[in-house]
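hey
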């Protein structure tokens, strides 16, 4: 069926037609050359089973493209909910992208919504004699599977573009595993997928596309998929905001990334964030395209994310509207790390960046104080607001974190799986009531950090599709996405109250990890530090590099090229994660390019779920023998580089089993970590005069001590925001927390 040329008739006029972003900001962006075009599709309101995060995904991409990559708002086309029929999506692609894109133009296509699968009959043989079928992936439009856009159709549309600078982002998945809800997450694979075949209209449209004489032989550019084959793409309610995990992680990273970030490194960082949240249930992937084929031939040839250099500074958000005669603002905070979103408090302080081409007023940049926040949107006022001041806020100004305010009473939220019997839920609720810092929610209704459930023989745990899952009479603790937390499965026949008490140490470890993640600020820190994770044996290789890009002062010459190559080498999994074989020997290299000595501690969890730390050595023996010698305060001097563990140390860091996820946080501070070391002193571990890896007996106590030390290091600057005694206030100049996440295989 011929579709090109009847886009306006298909979409109608006015609000029922195409939605162009624009007229939202006071500033007018100059038309760039080459042109930048985007088409963003988001569908929440399906018939029967709806999603909640797809329109947020569109907004996340839209704000990023405008304010970080310089897209002209009128060049971004949005199809939302009822506008996103199958016919409208395909017609709009041709009219907005295929007909307008010229060689060298940058093109972004984004889809957030349900995916499904259909059976396409083999066209080369008689269906009566040989009824073969071929399963095909399908993007589900608002008018259902019967009008779906085949993945093959999307590939043909991408191949029709007259430019190679193409990025397609697909925040969807296709495999129905028998449930839409996974704990507190919702899958973007359409549940109860109907059997059927592609419509005749869809196949006719494909035939028309194949007649295009300019059709490329391979998909141009890059296709970023939220989930690989037979995996799930998830969305979640984050502090009242429904969003796709993949889109949020991708756009948040790009708000803070450096101009040299390649798509491979971006995918690696995004995959680590998702693995941190849902384990291996969702694994993003890079679909093989022209860029991917070129990379196989020439590993040094890499594409920048979106094929563009960002045209603005790294940021955590943007002023979207100005109020109160230019003294107050509405903000979009899409650059905040996902781990802190639920806890990010009022009185947090943000630094305003001047608009391109304008100059900052006064001797120092102006700041905004958060007065209220709902999800990613906040209201703020100029701080301090001086009498008679003439400074005027402007829409489009970027903001960067300056002081982060967080509550001291952050707890762990546990959901009790709704599949448990009523008496089990009652007993579990009673058992949890005696555990401090733990609150209960209903599975699927509110976000939770973990879920108490029975272990299944088939179904959610193993990933097999099963309409009638078989349960063991064992309880376990599941992370979001029903990823089984290591070593949490009890004995057969265990009472639920007994299970809850048995899991208390694990709950404390999970809360400690949650607290440490709240300190994550690689993108926002202004403390000049850089760290790399390196393999020493069986080969020498840089695995990951973390740098505080906003640090003041000149940064040292970067070896990011080496790190970039490593993150695309054989150690990278299909999802972009670094995978280290058991028995590998590793080390961390830390360089301080700030103007003060930097104190540090290295904490995290291993693949067994244990809280671990690289314990500093004790001081030399006390001649009097009357006192226990304390742990040494370890620091990296100005301009100094150190190795952890030290090359001269008898301890060698060898990666241990089992297979699973390792997450380490390198925390560096301008001030000594006094309370952290005191908390470590109370932990039972072997004493010695050299560094060693130790399992923490009281990880929650250590994590709280870390936050208190960072709060103290932030004084007196943090006092300016008048944080309450119930809050922490962290100055971005005072510390840096760098995260290293990798698989053990």
């Amino acid at each position: 069926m011929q579709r090109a040329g009847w886009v306006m008739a298909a979409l109608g006029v006015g609000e029922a037609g195409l939605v162009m972003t624009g007229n939202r900001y006071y500033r007018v962006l100059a038309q760039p050359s080459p042109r930048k075009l985007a088409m963003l599709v988001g569908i929440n309101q399906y018939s029967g089973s709806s999603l909640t995060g797809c329109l947020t995904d569109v907004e996340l991409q839209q704000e990023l493209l405008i304010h970080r990559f310089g897209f002209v708002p009128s060049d971004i086309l949005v199809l939302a909910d009822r506008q996103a029929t199958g016919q409208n999506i395909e017609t709009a692609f041709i009219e907005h992208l295929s007909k307008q894109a010229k060689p060298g133009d940058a093109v972004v296509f984004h889809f957030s919504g349900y995916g499904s699968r259909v059976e396409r009959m083999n066209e080369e043989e008689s269906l009566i004699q040989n009824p073969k079928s071929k399963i095909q992936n399908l993007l589900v439009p608002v008018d259902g599977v019967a009008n779906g856009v085949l993945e093959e159709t999307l590939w043909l549309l991408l191949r029709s573009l007259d430019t190679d600078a193409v990025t397609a982002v697909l925040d969807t998945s296709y495999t129905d595993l028998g449930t839409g809800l996974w704990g507190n997450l919702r899958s973007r694979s359409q549940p109860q997928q109907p059997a059927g075949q592609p419509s005749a209209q869809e196949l006719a449209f494909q035939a028309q596309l194949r007649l295009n004489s300019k059709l490329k032989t391979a998909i141009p550019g890059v296709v970023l998929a939220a989930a690989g084959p037979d995996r799930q793409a998830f969305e979640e309610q984050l502090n009242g905001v429904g969003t796709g995990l993949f889109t949020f992680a991708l756009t948040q990273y790009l708000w803070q990334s450096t101009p040299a970030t390649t798509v491979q490194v971006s995918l690696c960082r995004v995959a680590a964030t998702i693995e941190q949240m849902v384990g291996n249930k969702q694994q993003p992937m890079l679909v093989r395209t022209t860029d991917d084929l070129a990379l196989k031939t020439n590993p040094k040839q890499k594409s920048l994310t979106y094929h563009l250099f960002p045209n603005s500074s790294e940021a955590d958000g943007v002023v979207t509207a100005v109020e109160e005669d230019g003294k107050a603002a509405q903000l979009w905070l899409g650059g905040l790390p996902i781990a802190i979103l639920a806890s990010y408090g009022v009185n947090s302080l943000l630094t305003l960046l001047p608009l391109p081409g304008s100059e900052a007023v006064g001797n120092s940049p102006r700041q905004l104080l958060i007065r209220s926040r709902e999800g990613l949107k906040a209201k703020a006022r100029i701080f301090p607001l001086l009498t008679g001041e003439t400074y005027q806020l402007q829409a489009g100004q970027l903001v960067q974190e300056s002081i982060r305010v967080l509550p001291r009473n952050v707890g762990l939220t546990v959901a009790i799986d709704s599949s448990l019997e009523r008496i089990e839920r009652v007993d579990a609720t009673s058992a949890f009531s005696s555990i401090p810092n733990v609150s209960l929610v209903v599975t699927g209704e509110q976000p939770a950090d973990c879920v108490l459930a029975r272990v299944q023989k088939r179904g959610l745990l193993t990933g097999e599709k099963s309409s009638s899952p078989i349960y063991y009479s064992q309880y376990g603790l599941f992370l979001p996405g029903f990823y089984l937390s290591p070593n949490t499965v009890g004995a057969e026949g265990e009472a639920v109250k007994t299970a809850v008490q048995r899991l208390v140490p694990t709950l404390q470890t999970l809360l400690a990890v949650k607290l440490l993640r709240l300190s994550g600020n690689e993108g926002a820190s202004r403390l000049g530090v850089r760290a790399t994770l390196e393999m020493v044996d069986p080969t020498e290789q840089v695995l990951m590099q973390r740098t505080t890009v906003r640090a003041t002062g000149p940064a040292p010459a970067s070896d990011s090229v080496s790190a970039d190559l490593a993150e695309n080498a054989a150690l990278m999994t299909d999802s972009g994660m670094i995978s280290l074989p058991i028995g590998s020997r590793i080390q961390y290299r830390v360089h301080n390019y700030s103007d003060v000595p930097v104190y540090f501690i290295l904490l995290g969890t291993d693949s067994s779920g244990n809280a671990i730390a690289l314990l500093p050595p004790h001081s030399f023996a006390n001649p009097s023998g009357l006192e226990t010698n304390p742990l040494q305060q370890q620091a990296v001097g100005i301009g100094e580089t150190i190795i952890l563990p030290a090359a001269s140390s008898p301890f060698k860091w060898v990666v241990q089993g089992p297979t699973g996820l390792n997450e380490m946080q390198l925390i560096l501070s301008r001030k000594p970590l006094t309370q952290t070391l005191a908390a470590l002193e109370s932990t039972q571990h072997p004493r010695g005069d050299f560094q060693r890896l130790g399992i923490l007996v009281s990880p929650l106590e250590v994590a709280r001590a870390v936050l208190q030390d960072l709060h103290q290091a932030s004084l007196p600057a943090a006092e300016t925001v008048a944080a309450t005694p119930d809050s922490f206030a962290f100055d971005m100049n005072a510390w840096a927390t760098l995260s290293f996440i990798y698989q053990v295989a």
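DSSP finds 14 helices and 38 strands in the chain. The chain has four domains: 7-307, 317-407, 412-511, 518-744.
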